[in-house]
Amino acid sequence: MKFTKEYDGKGFVNIAVDSEKEKNIKEHHLTIEEEIALANMDLMKEETVAIHRIKSSNNNYSYELPKDKENKIGDDRFYTLLMLAHYLYELRRESITTKQSVNIDWSTAPQCVSSVTF
C-alpha cells in the first residue's frame, strides 16, 4: 500500500496533471471533509508505526500499542487499515482465482491437415 505525504494543513494540495505535450501542476482546494480525511490518514500512519507484534505463550501473535502509548494514542485507525488491506487482498485474490475460461468454437477453425498417412 502507498500512502500520501504528510498533510501540511494549507487547505490545498498540488496535483500533477499530464498532458501530451507537458506536465503541469494543478492546485486543488480541499473541502473540510477532505482535510479531515487527510488528517486522519496522518494519524493512522502514526498509529500503524507505533503498533508492535507480541508473541503469546501459545505461539500466536497479537498486535498492540506499547504500554507507554496505550493511553496517549488510539489503535482504531490501525484496525480499520487492517480491514481495508484484507478486503483489498480478497478482491485481488478473487480476480486471480476466478478467471473465466474462454470457450472457443473449434468447429469453425481452419483445418491445416485433412489426413495423415504413414
Task: Write a concise keyword list for the protein shown above.
118 residues, alpha+beta, two-stranded antiparallel ribbon, 4 strands
Descriptive notes:
It is built from two helices and four strands. It has one domain (12-97). It has helices at 32-50, 76-97, and strands spanning 12-18, 23-29, 52-55, 61-64. The strands form two sheets. Strands 1-2 form a two-stranded antiparallel sheet. Strands 3-4 form a two-stranded antiparallel ribbon. Helices cover 35% and strands 19% of the residues. It is of the alpha+beta class and 118 residues long. Helix 1 crosses helix 2 (76-97).
Map the helices and strands:
Blueprint: E1 12-18, E2 23-29, H1 32-50, E3 52-55, E4 61-64, H2 76-97
Distance between the termini: 61 Å
Strand content: 15-25%
How many beta-strand runs?
4
Mean pLDDT over the full residue set: 86
Continuous helix count:
2
Helical amount: 25-40%
Query: What sequence of helices (H) and strands (E) makes up the elements?
Result: EEHEEH
Question: How large, in whole angstroms, is the Cα Rg?
Answer: 26 Å
Protein structure class: alpha+beta
**How are the strands ordered across the major sheet?**
1-2
How many separate structural domains? 1
Envelope shape: flat
Spans of at least 5 consecutive residues whose pLDDT stays below 50 are none
Sheet with the most strands? 2 strands, antiparallel
